[in-house]
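Q: I'm writing up a methods section and want to include an example of the input and output format. Could you take the sequence below and give the corresponding predicted structure tokens, formatted cleanly so I can copy it straight into the document?
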Amino acid sequence: MQYSHFSIEEREFIQAQMWQKQSVRSIAKVLGRSPSSVSREINRNIPLQRSYRPRLANERALAKRKCRGRKLRLKSGFLRRYVIEHLIAGYSPEQISGRLPIDHKGESISHEAIYQYVYSMVYRAGHSVMKPGYFDLRPYLKRRHKRRVPKGMRKSQRVFRPIGISIDMRPSVVRQRSRVGDWESDTVESKDHKPGINTLVERKTGLVLITKLKDKTSAATLEAIRLRFNALPPQTKITVTFDNGKENQYWQELEKATGARTYFAHPYSSWERGTNENTNGLARWYWPKGTNFETIPDEEIRAVEYALNTRPRKRLGYRTPLEVFNACLSGRQESVALQG
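A: Here is the clean output for your methods example:
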């Protein structure tokens, strides 16, 4: 027997019989329905008003009927093409969402809809295999998560004394990101603990400078930062915040060479250099863990640096780090030119 939805007349009959204290089985017998169907209908709609309301139950049923079945995501072919094109180009869903109305007035899409579109292509929301005929876009997400999971928390760690001046002594204006010239530095390690790259990120604009390291010594890190800072105007080199890696032991020599004051975050407190940590995560999209940077040509390093500096950022109103950095220097110093 083919199932049919309850009609409004049947729902009104259910209400009348409930007022007369009739049992579910007797109501089902008169209607020619199974007792379980009548029971579900009653239980589904009683919690709203503490009593069964046939008109309200009918309205809810009609509304749910419109939404049943597969939910279409990014229904427009134009939106799908735009999203896929920019995901492959290295944009995050949030950047795509923010940039779309700038590139195409009147168009909009939420970043959550993009995430749902990406994971809808995989059975069980990423917990199983790809659906036939679909293209896996998860590798183009910055963190490459196979499935969406809630964020966890790290376990507590021992805290050691920093090798230089503590971040506690750093001026509060650095935390406010109200000026250009406050940098964060870190080392991205290569395969098998070989020499990697140094990343310098300016906190206000997000401008990143990426330099290949000759070796893992403090002298190599000092030389990399000194060379990059030499190309910048003096007013853009105020402070540098490091972690407590051994490669940062020549901090005093760096202060003498560049004029920038150096500070050290607390050990195991990566959030104190969140801008740098986030940028390293973006760099890992181009160079996954296990990359041997000794085999990466300098031209590729410069190309990735340029790509990161010309990507729109939400906190910059979807302008690029290079645009904002040059705008901050406008009228005071020549713009910084990066070659892609």
